[in-house]
Specification:
The complex is a heterotrimer. Chain A is mainly α. Chain A has twelve helices and no strands. Chain B has ten helices and ten strands. The radius of gyration of chain B is 18 Å and the shape is globular. The chains are: A mainly alpha, B alpha/beta, C mainly alpha. Chains A and C meet through helix 2, helix 4, helix 5, helix 6 and helix 7 of A and helix 2, helix 3, helix 4, helix 5 and helix 6 of C.
Chain lengths: 296, 253, 327
């Protein structure tokens, strides 16, 4: 057989002197591509490091006690802080959580325990869409349902927007975690004569409480940094305000306003705000990761 | 042991700190089938993967000793594992055709890696390899279909054809029939006996009858050691080591 | 449990008549509450769609379908067309993909196929953290770090080297399309690489060994057994990344320069559908201006729905095919 000899050519001869010109090329291509992948990996992480360095450097040096304890001062004066903004963020995120978390968890329970039918599939579809809707659109929605009828920007509207962002997130997390609970656990509960609702609430849900908590914390971390849906809902406020039907400052919106302003002093404040926000979000993320790692 | 094509000297292999293979010396004559048997976890598969330097691809894995292919150490200095693997083909436990490639491209994959792109040459070699693997008649009209569209037994023969296409002098097989039904298994066993004329086969099997049916030499492994090796008929009728005897009479494993 | 207690328990269980209906009532109430909640989430989406429509009706009534292609956006003369923003969204997102796809593929391949486990874990964590940084922080960084760097270093260099291409002509502003594309690229990299990593991880090791055993080099193995096999999965990841890029608002708003004009140069300021809403909605005073912004929002909503449906379709097809292959 003549043909078979041709491909066989590279399988004869000694291993060591079989480095033909082509093999040489393959070897270098291999090295080159591996190097390229490493470079890409570094390129992916480099921005993170740069963001970190600047946030810590600029933010850390601009941060002081009055940042937490004072409200902004008029342009031109030095000093002042973001008391109004962080109090506002805490308030609005709390309000959003009070609505969004139970709502999401309940929908998640429905999906995992009763979600096999048509309604379940529609709900799954709806949560998928809701998670993919850009957050600025959610802001438009909150504007339409709350700001328009009340004729006023308010903390309510901001919290509503954030709650709508939380719901699908919490729903999917809850469903995924409850589905991990094996069916025999439910059956064991039912066999004890417990009604299904008690089995679901006291056995299934409680067993997954840790996991759901971590999912919830990630959702909180995510909405705490949201800016776009708050721009024309909670709007902003130069003063410390706790009235929920009034415009309220939030950390992200204040960072935005300060960042695009022409004042040096405000830029420093914006970095300090970013520092606080990043620390908060990262602590929550790290914390949930630790919990998850320990559970595994 | 006149002129072994494949010979190992004191081969040991580790996964991290765990030693899976302990100082194995073994040799295979040209045009023979050599079966590795032993209870699971005895290191026979690991040993097989040392023979084409695939073991070292696992993170933390390490090999010592030497493996001579036609008297040349594949672990020698300056030897590229890539060159080794082109000379020593391998077929795995689970059929693993490339899912993104057609039947034709699967068989041609090794040739293309070796820099052969001429359509006419590829077509000839693909046909020859598929004939060798006793698959040609079944797939000659399906060469453009994805390799994964074939049945399990056909997929495994496709993998054998893929390995044969580059004309390797040695073919390693890691329990090639364990995922197949009895009829496909019988076909592959028949195929192996025919292939002996072209290649030397080292086959790991969990099935003692298979070893007895097709192999010329049988090696019995236990906890990483080679307990006994010899002519298959002798091992199965007159084992020298009591552990071998216990294993083949089914007293443990 | 002591004997006495056990006896008592068994007595109460046996003694009291089993109120079957009561037990069922609890279950039924529970079920209907949950059902109500489930329906409410669906209604939420319906309401969102409806209100978005309602807000944008005046704009479409005034400008018709031409709204989507008209290039003029003038709040003073109250003539509105979404053309510049659609252009801005498309170009900035595509630019982001051009930068992010090779990087995301590179990092996920590196972590999955090349890096030792410890390094892979650490780097993987860092890449995930990219997704945790709030958009507004990227914007801040974009304004004060990225844009100055682009203005003083990157853009002059690009202009000098590739100045004959219209994309790289014009004065270096720093802020503009290029800055937006870069920030978006950074923000969608964790999305794309996370999905790619999952797709690569789903490829069984014996596929990799198949090519290694044929004498493939490491890179040839990655190409043959990983990239080729994962093609559709990678496509799904890229489409999802595109969806994210199109909806991203704050960071883009802060670095894109906000000018409602189409300029072929990547150095020039531009505006996207999301950024114009963020930029003008709170300050828009006329009804038609608000409605036009909402109409831009509605268009963005529809586009992001389509993109996500497409990604889901691609990923779903991969899932069902690999399920078949596993058989």
């Amino acid at each position: 057989m003549e043909v078979s000899l041709q491909p066989a050519a590279h399988t004869t001869g000694r291993l060591r002197d079989r480095l033909s010109f082509r093999d040489f090329g393959r070897k270098w291509k291999n090295r080159g591509m591996r190097l390229l992948l490493l470079v890409m990996a570094i390129a992916a992480i480099a921005p993170l490091l740069s963001v970190f360095i600047y946030v810590f450097q600029q933010g850390g040096s601009s941060l002081n006690w009055s940042f937490f304890s004072e409200v902004p001062v008029p342009v031109g004066e030095t000093g002042g802080g973001m008391l109004n903004a962080w109090v506002g963020t805490v308030t609005i995120v709390l309000m959003a959580s009070v609505v969004g978390i139970p709502w999401g968890i309940a929908a998640g329970i429905y999906l995992s325990e009763y979600g096999k039918g048509k309604l379940g599939n529609v709900l799954r579809f709806a949560t998928d869409i809701l998670t993919s809707v850009p957050s600025i659109i959610i802001g438009l929605f909150a504007y339409a349902i709350i700001v328009v009828p009340l004729k006023r920007f308010s903390a309510h509207a901001g919290a509503a927007a954030l709650a709508v962002i939380m719901v699908p997130f919490v729903t999917r997390t809850t469903e995924e975690l409850l589905k991990l609970v094996p069916n025999h656990v439910r059956e064991a509960g039912l066999a004890l004569g417990l009604p299904r609702w008690k089995v679901v609430l006291w056995i299934v849900l409680r067993g997954s409480a840790g996991g759901i908590m971590t999912g919830v914390m990630l959702a909180v971390a995510r909405v705490a940094g949201e800016t776009a849906p708050l721009l024309f809902t909670a709007f902003g406020n130069r003063f410390l305000s706790l009235s929920l039907d009034q415009p309220m400052a939030t950390l992200p919106v204040q960072i935005y306003t300060y960042a695009i302003s022409p004042y040096e002093e405000w830029h420093r404040q914006a970095w300090a705000g970013a520092f606080v926000l990043v620390i908060f979000v990262f602590t929550l993320n790290l914390f949930t990761r630790l919990i998850m790692a320990r559970r595994r | 042991m006149a002129n072994p094509i494949l010979e190992t000297k004191e081969v040991s292999a580790w996964f991290g700190k765990h030693q899976a293979v302990r100082g194995i010396s073994f040799s295979a004559e040209p045009n023979t089938i050599n079966a590795m048997i032993g209870p699971s976890g005895c290191g026979k598969s690991t040993f097989l993967r040392c023979l084409n330097r695939l073991h070292e691809e696992v993170e933390g894995a390490r090999v010592e000793g030497s493996v001579l292919l036609s008297k040349e150490d594949i672990y020698g200095q300056g030897v590229d594992p890539v060159a080794v693997r082109r000379r020593i083909g391998m077929v795995f436990q689970k059929p693993n055709p490339f899912p993104s490639m057609s039947v034709f491209d699967n068989v041609a994959a090794g040739l293309r890696l070796a820099g052969i792109h001429k359509r006419s040459v590829l077509a000839e070699v693909v046909e020859r390899s598929l004939v060798q693997a006793a698959l040609w008649e079944e797939v000659k009209d399906k060469l453009k279909q994805p390799g994964t569209s074939l049945s399990g037994g056909q997929q495994q023969r496709l993998c054998i054809a893929r390995a044969l296409a580059v004309n390797p002098p040695v073919l390693l097989m890691d329990e090639p029939t364990s995922a197949l039904d009895p009829i496909s298994t019988a076909k592959i066993e028949e195929l192996l006996v025919n292939l002996k004329n072209d290649v030397t086969i080292v086959i790991v099997t969990h099935n003692m009858q298979q070893a007895a049916r097709i192999s010329d030499q049988t090696c019995f492994f236990l906890t990483g050691e080679l307990v006994e090796a010899g002519e298959t008929s002798r091992i199965f009728t007159n084992p020298q080591d009591t552990r071998t005897e216990q294993y083949i009479t089914g007293r443990f494993g | 449990m002591s004997k006495a207690v056990a006896l008592e328990v068994s007595q109460t269980v046996e003694a009291g008549p089993v109120k079957k209906r009561d037990l069922h009532l609890g279950d039924r109430v529970f079920f209907w509450i949950l059902r109500g909640v489930a329906t409410s989430v669906i209604l939420l989406l319906a309401a969102l769609t409806l209100y978005l429509f309602r807000l944008s009706i005046p704009a479409f009534q005034t400008f018709g379908a031409k709204f989507l292609i008209s290039l003029e956006w003038n709040p003073v003369s109250e003539v509105f067309g979404a053309g510049p923003f659609i252009y801005g969204t498309v170009v900035s997102s595509l630019l982001a993909l051009c930068i992010s796809v090779p990087v995301s593929l590179g990092v996920s391949l590196f972590l999955n196929e090349l890096a030792p486990k410890k390094l892979a874990d650490t780097m993987g964590f860092l890449v995930e953290m990219l997704a945790a940084i709030p958009s507004v922080v990227y914007g801040l960084w974009g304004i004060f770090v990225l844009a100055p760097w682009l203005r003083t270093t990157v853009q002059p260099l690009l202009g000098k080297t590739f100045g004959f291409i219209p994309l790289f002509q014009g004065p270096p502003f720093g802020v503009g399309m290029l800055a937006a594309g870069l920030v978006l690229a950074i923000m969608i990299t964790p999305t794309i690489s996370a999905i790619c990593k999952e797709v690569f991880r789903a490829i069984p090791d014996h596929q990799r060994e198949a090519s290694l055993a044929l004498g493939a080099t490491r890179w040839e193995m990655i190409h043959m057994s990983v990239i080729q096999t994962a093609r559709s999965g990678i496509l799904g990841a890229v489409i999802l990344g595109l969806g994210r890029a199109m909806g991203e608002t704050m960071a883009v708003t802060m670095v894109i320069g906000n000018r409602a004009e189409i300029d072929i140069s990547l150095f020039a300021p531009a505006q996207t559908m999301a950024s114009v809403i963020a930029n003008e909605y709170a300050e828009a005073s006329s009804q038609i201006h608000l409605s036009s912004l909402a109409a831009v929002g509605l268009s963005l909503f529809v586009v992001s729905l389509l993109i996500n449906a497409m990604a889901r379709f691609v990923v779903h097809r991969v899932d069902s095919r690999s399920a078949k292959a596993a058989h």
